[in-house]
Design a protein that fits this description.
- The protein has one domain.
- With 160 residues, the protein is mainly alpha-helical.
- The protein starts with a helix and ends with a helix.
- The relative contact order is 0.08.
- It contains 6 helices and no strands.
């Protein structure tokens, strides 16, 4: 066997090792992506659950939230500020979920349907509609456009 033959064998072994490394890296990237998606879903679900629990566990906050959504004109000046802060927190979380879905494709289509359902049910209330008309500038243009498109669809559904 010549040195040239040994060199050819060495190149072949190196090519196999490179291929094995690439397969291993592909498997690791896929696993890491799955883990990242799971962690992101868990974190957003936890944040949403904690916020909902805080509202539900505090009778005064729950009553203010309900009144703010259904009859916002009946809120005192102080409660209007508290309601806006509460909805700011909810909408920031919703915007984060929307960004995760659209920018990083971290959620399945079934989660998008659930997300749209939650968003639409919120915007059926006059208090959230008033909130959005006065405070939507606090969110990214892309998110605002999505909301406005979703609201237009909601209006179409109500008229049909």
């Amino acid at each position: 066997m010549t040195i040239q033959d040994l060199g050819s064998i060495g190149e072949f072994v190196a090519a196999l090792a490179t291929l094995a490394t690439l397969v291993y890296l592909a498997i690791q990237v896929k696993s890491n992506t799955k883990t990242s998606r799971g962690n992101t879903h868990h974190d957003t679900a936890t944040a949403w659950s904690e916020l909902a629990f805080k509202i539900g566990a505090d009778a005064e906050l729950s009553a203010m939230n309900h009144l703010g959504r259904t009859n916002p004109e009946k809120l005192s000046k102080e409660d209007r500020a508290r309601f806006n802060a509460l909805v700011d927190a909810q909408m920031s979380l919703i915007e984060n979920i929307w960004v995760q879905y659209n920018e990083y494709n971290l959620f399945a289509k079934s989660n998008q349907d659930r997300f749209d359902f939650i968003l639409r049910s919120m915007f059926l209330t006059p208090g959230i509609q008033q909130y959005w008309s006065s405070r939507s500038r606090g969110f990214t243009k892309e998110f605002r456009d999505y909301i406005e498109m979703d609201l237009a669809l909601l209006e179409d559904e109500k008229t049909n």
